[in-house]
Amino acid sequence: MPSSVQPYVPPRHDADALNPEVVRNPEVIDPRIADVEAVARWLDYAFKLPGGFRYGLGGFIDLIPGFGDVVDALLSLYIVIRAIQLGMPRVTLARMVLNVGIEGVGGSLPFVGALFDTVFKANRRNYQLMRDHLGGGSRQQSMKDWGFLVATALLLGVSIALPVFLLVELAKHL
After folding, report:
1. Which of 27, 54, 95, 165 sits CB 3.0–4.6 Å from 145 for a disulfide?
2. At residue 124, does pLDDT exceed 90?
3. How crowded is residue 101: how many other Cβ atoms within 10 Å of its Cβ?
4. Which residues 6+ apart lie within 8 Å of 64 measured at CB?
5. In a 10 Å sphere around its CB, with 0-12 CB exposed, 13-18 middle and 19+ buried, how is residue 129 labelled?
6. Mean pLDDT computed over 115-144
7. What does the pLDDT look like over 17-46, one tens digit per residue?
8. For residue 114, what pLDDT band results from cuts at 50, 70 and 90?
9. pTM above 0.90, yes or no
């Protein structure tokens, strides 16, 4: 296993791309999660627009009404299944499932959902969670995962409680 994992550096497509004398510094990918990186890359950041914005096939898949959201979520769950196989902590798995859920709910909106899916990049986030855990930062990562889950639970609780409270107050005044 490499001593340090470098961030993903996309290949350059310019005049020097075919020059063997130009030295490249590609990402060193842990072989245990090379398949996960490939899925995340193709779904979230395989292509580059002028200006540097990266997008993948997930945004196009989401353009198919109904069916596209299901297919995208199932492909995203492959990364979670690999995390289970590699023995990731349960809190990290919960965060990964939450990332897929956020992308699924946000992606379910017609057209705007495809844009959300292109920007949110749940697969890339989940790949980074796996890479960070396998890189040895599991204690600190676990605390970040708990913080994210607690903040999400609070936000969800408020988003459910506030409309109920407003409906009760409205019913009192009728």
Report:
1. 95
2. yes
3. 14
4. 71
5. buried
6. 82
7. 444 454 444 566 777 888 898 999 999 888
8. confident
9. no
Q: Which residues contact residue 110 at a Cβ distance below 8 angstroms, ignoring those fewer than 6 apart? A: 65
For residue 19, how far is the Cα from the chain centroid?
34
CB 89 within 8 A of CB 147: no
Contact in structure between 126 and 79 (CB atoms under 8 Å): yes
Residues 9/26, Cβ–Cβ less than 8 Å: yes
44-90 pLDDT, tens digit per residue, is: 888 888 888 888 888 888 888 778 888 988 999 999 999 999 988 88
Q: Can you tell me the distance from the alpha carbon of 113 to that of 95, in angstroms, rounded to the nearest whole number?
A: 21
List the beta bridge partners of residue 55: 47
* Six-digit token string for 69: 């959201």
Domain boundaries, the chain: 15-172
What is the per-residue DSSP string for the chain? --SSPPPP-PPP-SGGGG-TTS--------GGGHHHHHHHIIIIISEE-TTS-EE-HHHHHTTSTTHHHHHHHHHHHHHHHHHHHTT--HHHHHHHHHHHHHHHHHHTSTTHHHHHHHHH-HHHHHHHHHHHHHTT-HHHHHHHHHHHHHHHHHHHHHHHHHHHHHHHHHHHT-
Residue 139, both tokens: 């204690």
**Residue at 172: amino acid letter:** K
- Using DSSP bridges, classify how beta strands 54-55 and 47-48 pair: parallel, antiparallel or unpaired: antiparallel
